[in-house]
């Protein structure tokens, strides 16, 4: 269904680096999520009333909260798509992370409510009324939630959306929750064991940990997480593909939201090269990074002596000393400053950050 709607309503659907296309994906998935969750809420609410099951009723209101979460995601995408302004020169992309965090909080609140209701049912157990219609409703709900998890995960990965990945996690947790409810009803019908409350409690615990995991995924980019190795490798490949670049270092990636990345780096170039030609080269590299990775790049030129035999010889000796200390150490900006009585060797050492 979602694929059909994408083909119908999203123009240039493969250009996912475009903020306008990402916004269209977010709005479409948000609307579909609201509709499906409202339908599931009504179906489970009716099923819960007929079967006298606290787990089904709690699961119904869980779907209602999911509809609210989809609405938050929808609003988040809309606000994140706003153009940069005077107070927010890098745009509003991080609002998408905030909307994902709100969804995570909603998941945690629902888990606490479900755990509380389940404990009451454990203390005061009652029979769950077996009804074939309720069974059909629960099975249909599981299938719908699996489908929602699939399309939210695939589209979230496609457009690099933390909020949609959180929604996919929530849908998976709902699948387990509804499955536990279904098992409780069937066990009670076959054996008369009243495990409705226990199943609800276990589901609440599962949803709680799912909410914690989802919250971490949205908080990490807000705090400033490290860029992925794949992204760093892509930057290195693009920059080093230009022949006059001898090396890069001091790479920093600033994340202002999906599709709003700013990177800075130092590029080593031959000191003997023509400054105007090298400046033109850097301009071309910045353009390539913008076109291929959809990021704004600022590159600092570092001239290095690559054709002076004394500099090359000393650099090799210093590199060997560093490798003997720690093979992971690398150096850059190596230069010799000569004086009347002695010479100074100056360079920067890069140390791998470890936890």
Describe the protein.
It is built from ten helices and five strands. It has helices spanning 2-9, 19-51, 54-80, 95-123, 132-159, 162-191, 196-223, 229-240, 275-293, 309-325, and strands spanning 247-255, 261-270, 295-304, 330-338, 343-350. The chain has a three-stranded mixed beta sheet with strand order 1-2-3, with helices on one face. It has a two-stranded antiparallel ribbon with strand order 4-5. The two termini are 45 Å apart.
Number of strands: 5
Mean pLDDT: 84
Largest sheet: 3 strands, mixed
- Series of H and E elements: HHHHHHHHEEHEHEE
Judged by helices, strands and strand pairing, the structural class is alpha+beta
- C-alpha geometry: elongated
SS strand fraction? 5-15%
Question: What's the alpha carbon Rg, rounded to whole Å?
Answer: 28 Å
Question: What keywords describe this structure?
Answer:
single chain; about 350 residues; alpha+beta; three-stranded mixed sheet; two-stranded antiparallel sheet
Give the helices and strands, then pairings.
Layout: H1 2-9, H2 19-51, H3 54-80, H4 95-123, H5 132-159, H6 162-191, H7 196-223, H8 229-240, E1 247-255, E2 261-270, H9 275-293, E3 295-304, H10 309-325, E4 330-338, E5 343-350
Parallel strand pairs: 2-3
Antiparallel strand pairs: 1-2, 4-5
Helix pairs in contact: 1-2, 2-3, 2-5, 3-4, 3-6, 4-6, 4-7, 5-6, 6-7, 8-9
